[in-house]
From TrEMBL:
UniProtKB keywords: Hydrolase
InterPro entries: AB_hydrolase_3, AB_hydrolase_fold, GDXG_lipolytic_enzyme
Organism annotation: Shewanella inventionis
Gene3D superfamilies (UniProt xref): alpha/beta hydrolase
The keyword Hydrolase is assigned to this record: yes
The protein's name: Alpha/beta hydrolase
Alphabetized SUPFAM superfamilies for the sequence: alpha/beta-Hydrolases
Residues in Alpha/beta hydrolase fold-3 domain copies: 83-288
Organism taxonomic ancestry: Bacteria, Pseudomonadati, Pseudomonadota, Gammaproteobacteria, Alteromonadales
A family per Pfam: Abhydrolase_3
GO MF annotation, one: hydrolase activity
C-alpha cells in the first residue's frame, strides 16, 4: 500500500521530483560524487544544531588504516550511557560531518555519550569494509573515552544503511563474543538486500529515495551478483534468536524500505526479543535529515530514543 505523505513535505518533494525527472530526461547517470553532493545538500535543512559541552575528533589506528570518530558528551564528568552511531547514506554517502546536528541532538536530548563513526564507503571500499570499521569501533569504543566518564553498557544506532550495519553487527554478535551490544536503535533501516519487499514497489517513486537508486547503491556496495552473498548479508534473512539485542525501531509510511523494517520488528518479536516499534505514517525515508521541515516528527523520534536510552 502506498503511503500518504505529510503536507509539510509537499513543496520539498515537488522540487526533488522535478530534479529527478530532469536528470532522467537529460540521461544523467548516477555517480558517487553526484549522490554524495546531493545528500550533503540536506545539511541546509538541519539548522538546529544544539551546543554540546564536549566534542572531540579522535582516531582509532590499525596496521592498515585509521578510523576517524567524533565523540560527544553533554556532561563529560558524569557517567552516561554510550551510543555508538553509524550514519546512513546507502553505504556510499554520508559522513560524521553531515550527521553532526543529529549526534548533537542525540547527546543532549538522550543524555548520552555519542561516538559517531566515519566508516569506509563504497564503491571505493565495497562490502564488508564499512561493517569491519564499525565492528572495530564498537569493540574498541572504550579506547576513545579516556577523558569522558561513561556507563559500561553500549547501544548502537543507525539510520538506513547505518541500520543495516547495526543489524549486521547484531547478527554477527550471535557467534562472535567480542561483539557486545546491549541495545540497538534502528531508524528506517535497510535489512534486506534482496529487494523483495512490497513497499519497494508501492513507495518506490515520488518519495525522494527511489527503488532504482537503492538498487544502484547495492550494486556499488556488493560489486557482486552472487545471490548467496547478498542473501547472507541481509539481517532480515539471517538467524533470529532471543539473544539478539533489545530493539527500538522507527519506520516511515512513505518509505520504500518500510515493509522490510516492519518485517524485521515482527521477526525479532516472534523469537522473544524485546522490541519497541514506532511508525511515522506520513514521513519519508531520511526524514531525520529534514529537521527544519518536520521538526515535530524529529523531536518526537529523539524523545522516544531518550526514553529508550534511560532504560539501558
Amino acid at each position: 500500500m502506498r503511503g500518504t505523505v505529510s503536507a509539510k513535505l509537499t513543496d520539498f518533494l515537488a522540487q526533488a521530483n522535478s530534479n529527478i525527472a530532469l536528470a532522467k530526461q537529460n540521461n544523467i547517470q548516477f555517480t558517487p560524487s553526484i549522490l554524495r553532493e546531493n545528500l550533503n545538500k540536506l545539511s541546509g535543512l538541519m539548522s538546529d544544531s544544539p551546543a554540546v559541552t564536549y566534542i572531540a575528533d579522535k582516531t582509532l589506528t590499525l596496521t592498515d588504516r585509521s578510523i576517524n570518530v567524533r565523540v560527544y558528551s553533554p556532561a563529560p564528568n558524569t557517567a552516561l550511557p554510550v551510543l555508538v552511531h553509524f550514519h546512513g547514506g546507502g553505504h556510499m554517502c554520508g559522513s560524521v560531518e553531515l550527521y553532526d546536528p543529529i549526534c548533537r541532538h542525540l547527546a543532549s536530548i538522550a543524555q548520552c555519550v555519542v561516538i559517531s563513526v566515519e566508516y569506509r564507503l563504497a564503491p571505493e571500499y565495497p562490502y564488508p569494509a564499512g561493517i569491519d570499521d564499525c565492528e572495530y569501533a564498537l569493540i574498541h569504543y572504550a579506547d576513545l573515552l579516556d577523558d569522558v566518564k561513561y556507563l559500561p553498557k553500549v547501544t548502537i544506532i543507525g539510520d538506513s544503511a547505518g541500520g543495516a550495519i547495526c543489524t549486521s553487527l547484531s547478527m554477527k554478535s550471535l557467534t562472535d563474543k567480542r561483539i557486545n551490544i546491549d541495545q540497538q536503535i534502528l531508524i528506517y533501516p535497510s535489512v534486506d538486500y534482496t529487494l523483495t519487499s512490497p513497499s519497494l514497489d508501492s513507495n518506490g517513486t515520488g518519495f525522494l529515495l527511489e527503488t532504482t537508486r537503492i538498487k544502484w547503491y547495492f550494486e556499488q556496495y556488493f560489486q557482486s551478483t552472487d545471490a548467496n552473498i547478498i542473501k547472507q548479508a541481509s539481517p532480515l534473512l539471517g538467524p533470529m534468536s532471543a539473544q539478539l539485542p533489545k530493539t527500538l525501531i522507527f519506520t516511515a509510511g512513505c518509505d520504500p524500505l518500510r515493509d522490510e523494517g516492519i518485517a524485521y520488528a515482527k521477526a525479532l518479536t516472534a523469537v522473544g526479543v524485546d522490541v519497541e516499534h514506532h511508525s511515522l505514517d506520513d514521513m519519508i525515508h531520511a526524514y531525520m535529515l529534514l529537521h527544519d521541515l518536520v521538526k515535530d516528527e524529529c523531536m518526537k523520534t529523539y524523545l522516544y530514543i531518550a526514553k529508550f536510552m534511560a532504560k539501558v
